[in-house]
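Morning, I've got a small favour to ask if you have a moment. You're getting the sequence in one-letter code plus the fold written as tokens. Thanks so much in advance, here it is:

===
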Amino acid sequence: MPSTAPSLPPGYRSRPVNAHDIPAIHALVAACEREVHGRVQSDAGAIAADLSRPGLVPEADTVLVLDQAGSPAAWAWVDRRSEVDVHPGHRDRGLGAALLGWVESRARETGSDGIVQTVPEADTAAVALLRSRGYRPLATAWQLEFPMPVEPAVPEPPTGVTVRPFRVGDGPAAHALVQDAFDEWQQRRQAYEEWAAHTIDRPAFAPTQSTLAFSGGQLVGAALALDVPGSGEGYVEQVAVRIDHRGRGLARLLLCHTFRAFHRASRSSCVLWTHSDTGALDLYLRVGMTVRQSSTVLRKDLHARSDRGHAR
């Protein structure tokens, strides 16, 4: 268990997160998203998936901050990565700085040599706070969008390739494909259960809009999609193509099938996130997507104790 709870401003108290808190935490995160982006981008399944990360112990690695009325004002978790969200109605009161201090302290207790957070560039106050506490840019993440005023055209598949939607039982093969493809840039392979919690086991998973490509009976490409309630647009969670089938236009083919499936489901656009480490930005731009927003991945070396910063 952590040695101390976060030192909070007067009028607030904290406790660890439990599974019953997920709807309320999602409401908090949604309020943050509306404040920064003008729209909700996440679902409760994303919160549940983060809390089920292997190695994360909710009793020790999470904090939920409550105001005097018992309503969630902020929350944080830490497990290799970390996240801190403060409700817009409770900002500029020092909660962000207090939770950052707790996250860093907990990370040190577990032996981490560094801590990482991803922050929207539009949230200038959060970026300034992190930079003041010694966080430095590590990478960039972009959200791209594909507007669909008319039904998108779909190219013909390469010779020998067939395409179909995701079916029950496709999970293990899709997991292996994604992990092999992402090995080139990700820090570690995800176990099946962790990967599934973020993709095919989420309530928002959209199998009809998820597209798989096969060659010789083997899975060689996948675009796994989510239909986030209330967003009005489709979301591509992961795109992967087996290394020996790259350069054949499969990524474009998969995306176009998924775009068309979302259009037929009355979605007006489709979005996805990509990371600078993947080198995939140019691919998405060539498909016709445009950058909607960006986030910065920031890292702090925990051997350097530059913890003093401005409260928020």
About this structure: The longest helix spans residues 22-37.
